[in-house]
Input
Amino acid sequence: MISIKSDREIELMKHAGHINYLTHLEVLKNLKPGITTKALNDIAHKFILAHDCKPSFLKYNGYPASICISVNDEVVHGIPSKRKIKNGDVVSIDIGVEYKGYHSDSANTYIVGNTTKEIEDLVENTKKSLYEGLSVIKDGVKLSAIGKKIEDYAIEHNLGVVRELVGHGVGTSVHEDPDVPNYYTKDHTILKSGMVIAVEPMLNLGSEDIYECEDEWTIKTEDGLPSAHFEHTVLVTKDGYVILTGE
Ligand code: MF3
Ligand code: CO
Output
């Protein structure tokens, strides 16, 4: 069942989304060579609590940290650790924030220092694919149009689209109906104003193939090439959409 949010629920989700955005800024400020991913996690954790919110991911299905940090060939769900960030790393930061029982979910990928043109393009094009996907959203449009746009954009730029993980509805749980794939499907679900969904393309420089690590969380690319991930939680409206996890 896909929930339609009331005005009150939308206000709470806007707040959760705003704190999510501010948490991303706080993490970015500290993202420098030498810092550990655990230290970044702790900065986000404290920031979220200081704003009267909770980290949505902590203990979600047993997840052991407050945010996900996925470096280089790690696609998503990297667990913060003693690992130190290095110059040239591709770092995906995924944050969930809960305010009064309502969630927001957002991810960004950053390049620390310098890297190759190829990897810069990977990150830039993954971000663009998210906005391409969002661009079709409005009341009455098929949800499958989002994935079609993202997939077409990825193919055009020769990037692998991760298929095993998808976007999702967001509300009183961080993951709700519907699934929002980053590729075309024959799903007939129609977007309705008041729905809130997270769109989150994960694109790989090489093949789309991935595997789960022994920690049972971290997802890596099969070929060891880097991956990027961008995600926004958005509200569907009559004429378009509102990003809840942006400025
Ligand atoms: N943003 C992530 C997603 O939608 C949620 C992380 S799940 C957690 O896939 F379990 F790691 F928290
Ligand atoms: Co998500």
Observations:
- DSSP finds four helices and 15 strands in the chain.
- The mean pLDDT is 98.
